[in-house]
Specification:
Elements: H1 2-18, E1 31-32, E2 52-53
Length: 61
């Protein structure tokens, strides 16, 4: 009976700790600037540039 109490208490403790609130900042997705690019059928090489920014200030790679 003592073993059962220890297991139940252990499971309750693990459950309480694993459900703790995460107060860390959320990582938001980068924002891509909307852009329309028109390309001729015979175009070669670079045809446009896409720019993006990260609302958290993280480096975009």
């Amino acid at each position: 009976m003592r073993n059962v109490k220890v297991w139940v208490l252990s499971l309750l403790l693990i459950g309480a700790v694993s459900c703790s609130k995460d107060d860390g900042p959320a990582n938001r997705a980068p924002v891509v600037e909307a852009k329309t690019i028109t390309v001729d059928e015979t175009a070669t090489g670079q045809i446009g540039t896409v720019t993006a920014s990260d609302p958290d200030g993280d480096e975009i790679t």
